Amino acid sequence: MKSVSIRIMLAVLAVIFIFANQPYAQNIDLSGQASAAATLGTDPSEGRSHLDEIASYIPTLAIGLPIGPSRLIDFEAAYKGDALLDGFFGSGPGGADTHGELFRLWGRYSSERLELRAGLQKISFGPGLILRPLNWFDTLDPKDPTGQTDGVTAIRARYFFGNTLNLTGWAIRPDNFDLIAPGGRIEKTFSMGDAAISYHHRPAYETADIRGNAGIPLLPSATYEDRFAADLRVDIGIGLWTEAVHSRASNMNRSLIMAGGDFTFDIGNGLYILGEHLIDIRRKLTPGDDESDHITAAMMNYPIGISESLVMIVEYDWQRKLLFNYLRVQRDYDRLSLNLMIFANPGRDEFGFETPSALAGFGTGIQFMVIYNH
């Protein structure tokens, strides 16, 4: 996969070199995000202590080359390096775990109506914020103040039919042409909001073999998976939205239906309230094996001052009777963000799947995070 992305970027660099003498300005930008967090929690994974620290840095190089009044060739390359330290600066039994990998590596051609992008990139869509049936290719989470998400290796094309209609097509994981996962999306904007329909096909391969930059599977199936989706957002004084996804394979069908809404109340500096409810229905071929789950989420955001805000998120799984609580106090400067987070969640043994080594998100704990953007 990396070899294909590297070949794509080398081709883009060659094009940039060819056009380097054109009478249009070139834009080169070097930026980055550094973050560090310390967590004290009650539910560490086996063989680890109740304290850990995480540090991460994502340097990003972006180059843009206009090749005409309304045409641009650009690319972005980013690398993510992080470290998880168990105990006080790695003094715990888990020691230090370090990891580094490509985070973004894509090239793009864009004009007034057409955009073509290839490589390791971010693909995200849908109006949902917390409970998101349409998070097929991203890992965005409102509980993560960094706002980062893993990317997918893809070729993506977008065409804009004026200001109200656009068509997107993609092919995920194009390094292996036996396993190309194609799909597309049509979005329409109207006076009160926007609506879209989406489709994605994942060919037959084991869920365990799906790489992190190939998208998120909805069905644990070794056969094909077809996904059909529709989403809608309207603003009628309050914001209302829905996402509906139906995914089918040879041995199971799955339907995810989410409805949400938000409103800002004229209380103090403005109290923002959001609510979402998700129904997850899984139907197997054998009669009587249907399973369903209901999850409700609510979020409150209140600006304490010009630079400070308070965020609270509560989620409840009705079938498993699991309650998730999250509270964040955030203070932002021009480039710096300070975040104090408190969480009270179920323990690791209640999740039913293998959990990561980090403390945050399991049991009860407190975390302090510093984020610096340059």
Please describe the topology of this protein.
Blueprint: H1 2-18, E1 27-41, E2 51-68, E3 71-86, E4 96-110, E5 114-121, E6 152-161, E7 165-172, E8 181-190, E9 193-202, E10 225-235, E11 239-248, E12 252-265, E13 271-284, E14 291-303, E15 308-317, E16 322-332, E17 336-344, E18 364-373
Antiparallel strand pairs: 1-2, 1-18, 2-3, 3-4, 4-5, 5-6, 6-7, 7-8, 8-9, 9-10, 10-11, 11-12, 12-13, 13-14, 14-15, 15-16, 16-17, 17-18
Written account of the structure:
This protein is mainly β. It has a domain at 129-332: Porin, CATH 2.40.160.10. The protein contains one helix and 18 strands. It has one helix at residues 2-18; strands spanning 27-41, 51-68, 71-86, 96-110, 114-121, 152-161, 165-172, 181-190, 193-202, 225-235, 239-248, 252-265, 271-284, 291-303, 308-317, 322-332, 336-344, 364-373. The protein has an 18-stranded antiparallel barrel. A hairpin with an 8-residue loop joins β7 (165-172) and β8. The protein starts with a helix and ends with a strand. The model has no long low-confidence stretch (mean pLDDT 89).
What helical percentage do the residues reach?
under 10%
State the helix count.
1
Named CATH architecture of the domain at 129-332: Beta Barrel
CA distance, first residue to last residue: 29 Å
User: Mean pLDDT, nearest integer?
Assistant: 89
Q: Hey, roughly how much beta strand do the residues contain?
A: over 45%
Largest sheet: 18 strands, antiparallel, barrel
Shape: globular
What CATH calls the topology of the domain at 129-332 is: Porin
Rg from alpha-carbon coordinates: 22 Å
Number of strands: 18
**CATH class descriptor of the domain at 129-332:** Mainly Beta
For this structure, the quaternary state is single chain
User: Could you name the CATH homologous superfamily of the domain at 129-332?
Assistant: Porin
Contiguous uncertain segments of 5+ residues: none
Order of helices and strands: HEEEEEEEEEEEEEEEEEE
Class from secondary-structure proportions: mainly beta
